[in-house]
């Protein structure tokens, strides 16, 4: 797969959060779990439907892939939809991080020290 | 782990709206959340489940049609639709031109449709429309005797009711010192509103128009006269007589063949009780029993004529012993019935308003359909010509298991999509053109006349018809491709090129026909408006209501002539182009020939005012009292009677005899449709002026028109303060006779331009395609040494042949139809060669220009670019 260009990255703030959390959870990322993890890591109360939508969008953009599995009793026998970060998704995370760091490094020291 | 039962309802809702595949995952997540919380907060857990289900009600999770009905072909249509949009996007220019042509044609259809619908809606608001009949005399005349309605009601039980109408008239209503000129007045019997009901805003339908001086106003006139005051019971002065307002009715719908603004009661009861059976001054309407046999009723009229009218005819003409002798001499006197519902469309002369021209309605309906056909042909030509581009797609579909009927459906859907887009564009176009259309069609259509529920049905019909017409042939043609051959690229012959040529010939023929038609109409109009009238119409200013001033005529005349720009002033009771009345005269010699010349009462100055050329004898002299027994006639009258020496000959009317003292050259009496007719001038006695027809002041202007008009207005105002002056030039009055032809010409030329433009669009896209296919051929020819000019000629000959073929079809048809149309006119243009040559050259130039543009682009290309691709 070709390398991703910076200007091609199209991702929202919340989507990026979901993508990061999915990456953290690695093999265990599905709707409820992602929601819980966001709550635990950032303290943000998010909605299950919002999480689903973000996951769907990320998959459509090619940053995530999904597969079914892991039905349990507490889910009434319904399968989970597990998500995995794709190579493209990893690239996006890296690009975003690099851009952010580059920008951060250029902030005048004065501004940061006055705090 | 004990599981508390989750609520069922939210999940049922979820499963109802959500796509099944998503529903499984969402359900799982929701159940997980529910069970986690239910042990601590059971109520909150339930509520959260409901809320979450509602939150999942998002577009991406909601079922498609195909999810609801998994076995329907909806999904397939979705891909068809997608493919359509893609193939449209691939040929943007051609698609846009195609849609443009279709939308113009559809806009034309819309406009004609509402016009035709409007014309067919006339009088439909009358509840008893089907049972109302108008009595005609001698098959087409509308004026009938005064006593007719009452007598027919008395004699025939099937005649339930009836009413007489006189008019329409334009009255001058004076009120509080103001004068208001108000048109649309009629005299009517008290039974008028029983046949033609109206909505009464004041007063009731009974006991109105019973008195000799009653008036019923429409809301429009009532508001004009009384603003917010109560009109009922007020006394108003109409043309010098006082009338009492006995009712106010709602304004009439525009679609009325009796378009009155106010109704006056019949002024003299003597008109009903006595009166001659041979004097025809009334319009008679009868309400006939719906069970009655109209033919039987009409058959009884022969006896009616014999019983009531016969004695009077014999009384006036002592030369006939019986009525049969009278009829045997070629005279006619009979009554007929015309259904009220036919009056507007089929008997426009009997309408009191502006009757429809059924023939031109049909013409325009036909033209609209033909224009739509031209646009459909554009689509057919494009779709079949481009078939090679779709061949692989069709082959692939067939290989994958699609069948002929499905592919037909696909291409029908394509034409449906394109037509739908054109439909919307056409609607917008029609709305934009509406103001112009209103001007030429005399309509007053608004946006809501086009956009309404009733028309929606018509629009659907046009949409279906158009998409079928344009789509069915290409669809069947494309669907018949053999899959293997199509995939190998073998069928790609460009598809039915002979048919395409045929259709182009058809388009050209229609365009040519319309162009020749337009040319003929305009030539004829120009001939009519410039024809020699034998009158000084441009200098003659006609002023109505001369009776108001006739008492002071001498003083008024001196006042006017005092101005240098005014040559002469005279009086007349009628004028050419303004409607003349014919009176019966008999020649006083051994032949006793009866004839009905146009009768005009004029003052001695009229010869100079109108510019009449005297051939023999003299015109009337001012101070010669004996001239009241003398007459002046025109040449046609002399010719009709076959007199060598007309001067001194006598014409008789009743007991009185008149001596011919002069003969004038023939002059135009009306439109070019009417023949020269005999004319009798009688000397005007100012006493009783205005009782025989109109009362007009004729002013001859011999200088600056503006100054003269100003002076006339000032003088009029001095003699008749506040009384509105109503004047016009006789020339304008003549020109107005051809308003119908002008509107016809305008509309016709508009449509033929539309047809040409659409056909040119088709030609443009088609030639682009033909050349595209011949690109390699042209390139090879060039490589082998052909010059651009030679290639040019080769392509042009193809289209030139098509034009010649269409000329052979269109010209004879145009000649036949043009001849038919011109048949109505006495003075008419010759259908010479130029009339056909000019449009043909024009069409040839347009199409050659269109094709040349495309050809030049292709032919001047570097041949290498076309050849190196393989």
Tell me what the structure shows.
The complex is a heterodimer of chains A (115) and B (870). Chain A is mainly α. Chain A has a single domain, classed as Arc Repressor Mutant, subunit A (Orthogonal Bundle). In chain A, 55% of the residues lie in helices and 10% in strands. Chain A contains 5 helices and 2 strands. A two-stranded antiparallel sheet of chain A has the order 1-2. The longest helix of chain A is centred in the last third of the chain and has 19 residues. Chain A is globular and about 60 Å long. The termini of chain A are far apart. Chain B is an alpha+beta fold and 870 residues long. Chain B folds into 4 domains: 63 residues; 222 residues, no CATH class; 225 residues, no CATH class; 190 residues, no CATH class. In chain B, 52% of the residues lie in helices and 15% in strands. Chain B contains 31 helices and 24 strands. In chain B, the strands form 3 sheets. In chain B, strands 14, 15, 16, 17, 18, 19, 20, 21 and 22 form a 9-stranded mixed beta sheet that branches. In chain B, strands 3-4-9-6-8-7 form a 6-stranded mixed barrel. Chain B has a 4-stranded antiparallel beta sheet with strand order 13-23-12-24. In chain B, β3 and β4 form a beta hairpin. The model of chain B has no long low-confidence stretch (mean pLDDT 86).
What's the quick description here?
Chain A is mainly α and 115 residues long. Chain A has helices at 13-25, 31-42, 48-61, 87-105, 109-113, and strands at 64-69, 80-85. Chain A has a two-stranded antiparallel ribbon with strand order 1-2.
Count of DSSP-assigned helices of chain B: 31
First-last Cα distance of chain A: 44 Å
- Spatial shape of chain A: globular
Instruction: Name the largest protein-protein interface in this structure.
Output: A-B, 21 and 20 residues
CATH topology of chain A: Arc Repressor Mutant, subunit A
Overall structural class of chain A, as computed from helix and strand content, comes to mainly alpha
- How many distinct folded domains of chain B? 4
Proportion in β-strands of chain B: 15-25%
């Amino acid at each position: 797969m070709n390398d991703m260009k910076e200007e091609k990255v199209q991702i929202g703030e919340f989507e990026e959060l979901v993508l990061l959390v999915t990456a953290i959870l690695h093999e265990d990322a599905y709707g409820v779990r992602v929601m819980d993890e966001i709550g635990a890591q950032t303290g943000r109360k998010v909605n299950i439907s919002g999480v689903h939508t973000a996951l769907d969008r990320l998959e459509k953009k090619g940053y995530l892939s999904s597969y079914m599995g892991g039905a349990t009793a507490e889910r009434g026998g319904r399968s989970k939809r597990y998500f995995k970060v794709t190579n493209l998704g990893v690239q996006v995370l890296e690009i975003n991080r690099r851009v952010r760091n580059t920008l951060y490094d250029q902030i005048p020291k004065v501004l940061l020290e006055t705090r | 782990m004990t599981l508390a039962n989750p609520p069922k309802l939210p999940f049922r809702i979820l499963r109802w709206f959500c796509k099944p595949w998503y529903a499984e995952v969402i359900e799982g997540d929701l159940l997980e959340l529910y069970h986690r919380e239910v042990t601590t907060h059971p109520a909150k857990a339930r509520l959260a489940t409901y809320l979450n289900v509602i939150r999942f009600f998002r577009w991406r999770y909601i079922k498609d049609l195909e999810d609801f009905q998994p076995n329907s072909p909806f999904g397939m249509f979705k891909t068809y639709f997608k493919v359509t949009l893609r193939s449209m996007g691939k040929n943007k220019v051609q698609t846009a031109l195609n849609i443009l042509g279709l939308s113009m044609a559809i806009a034309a259809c819309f406009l004609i449709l509402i016009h035709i619908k409007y014309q067919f809606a006339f009088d439909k608001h009358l509840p008893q429309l089907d049972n109302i009949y108008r009595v005609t005399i001698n098959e087409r005349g509308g004026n009938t005797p005064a006593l007719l309605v009452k007598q027919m009601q008395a004699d025939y039980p099937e005649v339930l009711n009836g009413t007489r109408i006189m008019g329409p008239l334009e009255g001058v209503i004076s009120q509080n010192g103001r004068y208001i000129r108000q048109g649309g007045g009629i005299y009517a019997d008290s039974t008028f509103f029983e046949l033609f009901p109206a909505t009464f805003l004041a007063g009731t339908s009974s006991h109105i128009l019973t008195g000799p001086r009653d008036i019923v106003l429409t809301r429009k006139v009532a508001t004009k006269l009384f603003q917010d005051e109560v009109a009922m019971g007020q006394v108003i002065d109409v043309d010098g007589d006082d009338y009492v307002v006995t009712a106010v009715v709602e304004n009439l719908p525009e679609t009325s063949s009796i378009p009155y603004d106010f109704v006056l009661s019949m002024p003299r009861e003597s008109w009903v009780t006595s009166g001659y059976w041979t004097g025809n001054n009334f319009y008679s309407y009868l309400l006939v029993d719906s069970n009655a046999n109209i033919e039987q009723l009409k058959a009884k009229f022969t006896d009616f004529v014999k019983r009531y009218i016969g004695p009077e005819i014999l009384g006036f003409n002592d030369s006939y012993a019986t009525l049969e002798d009278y009829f045997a001499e070629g005279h006619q006197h009979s009554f007929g019935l015309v259904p009220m519902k036919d009056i507007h469309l089929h008997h426009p002369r009997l309408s009191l308003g502006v009757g429809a021209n059924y023939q031109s309605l049909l013409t325009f309906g036909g033209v609209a359909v033909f224009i739509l056909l031209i646009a459909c042909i554009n689509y057919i030509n494009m779709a079949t010509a481009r078939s090679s581009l779709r061949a692989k797609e069709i082959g692939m579909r067939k290989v994958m298991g699609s069948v002929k009927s499905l592919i037909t459906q696909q291409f029908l859907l394509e034409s449906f999509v394109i037509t739908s887009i054109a439909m919307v564009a056409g609607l917008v176009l029609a709305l934009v053109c509406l103001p112009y259309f209103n001007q030429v069609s005399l309509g007053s259509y608004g946006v809501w006349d086009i956009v309404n529920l009733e028309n929606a049905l018509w629009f659907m019909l046009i949409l279906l018809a158009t998409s079928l017409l344009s789509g069915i042939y290409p669809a069947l043609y494309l669907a018949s491709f053999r899959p293997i051959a199509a995939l190998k690229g073998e069928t790609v012959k460009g598809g039915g090129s002979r048919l395409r040529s045929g259709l182009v010939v058809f388009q050209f023929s229609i365009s040519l026909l319309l162009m020749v038609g337009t040319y003929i109409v305009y030539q004829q109009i120009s001939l009519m408006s410039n024809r020699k009238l034998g009158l000084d119409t441009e200098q003659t200013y006609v002023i109505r209501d001369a009776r108001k001033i006739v008492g002071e005529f001498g003083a008024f005349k001196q006042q006017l002539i005092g101005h240098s720009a005014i040559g002469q002033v005279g009086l007349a009771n009628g004028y050419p182009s303004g409607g003349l009345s014919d009176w019966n005269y008999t020649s006083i010699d051994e032949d006793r020939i009866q004839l009905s010349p146009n009768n005009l009462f004029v003052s001695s100055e009229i010869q100079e005012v109108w510019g009449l050329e005297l051939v023999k004898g003299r015109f009337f002299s001012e101070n010669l009292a004996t001239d009241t027994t003398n007459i002046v006639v025109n040449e046609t009258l002399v010719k009709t009677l076959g007199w060598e020496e007309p001067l001194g000959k006598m014409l008789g009317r009743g007991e009185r005899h008149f001596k011919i003292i002069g003969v004038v050259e023939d002059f135009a009496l009306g439109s070019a449709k009417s023949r020269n007719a005999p004319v009798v001038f009688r000397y005007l006695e100012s006493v009783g002026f205005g009782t025989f027809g109109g009362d007009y002041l004729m002013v001859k202007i011999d200088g600056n028109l503006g100054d003269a008009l100003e002076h006339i207005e000032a003088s009029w105002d001095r003699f008749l303060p506040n009384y509105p002056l109503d004047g016009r030039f006789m020339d304008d009055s003549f020109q107005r006779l051809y308003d119908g032809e002008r509107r016809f010409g305008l509309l016709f030329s508009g449509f033929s331009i539309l047809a040409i433009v659409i056909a040119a669009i088709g030609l443009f896209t088609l030639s682009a395609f033909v050349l595209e296919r011949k690109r390699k051929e042209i390139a090879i020819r060039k490589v082998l040494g052909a010059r651009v000019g030679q290639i040019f000629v080769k392509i042009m000959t193809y289209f030139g042949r098509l034009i010649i073929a269409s000329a052979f079809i269109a010209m004879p048809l145009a000649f036949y139809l043009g001849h038919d149309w011109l048949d109505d006119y006495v003075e008419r243009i010759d259908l010479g060669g130029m009339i056909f040559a000019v449009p043909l050259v024009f069409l040839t130039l347009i199409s050659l220009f269109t094709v040349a543009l495309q050809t030049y682009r292709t032919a001047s290309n570097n041949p290498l670019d076309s050849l190196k691709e393989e």
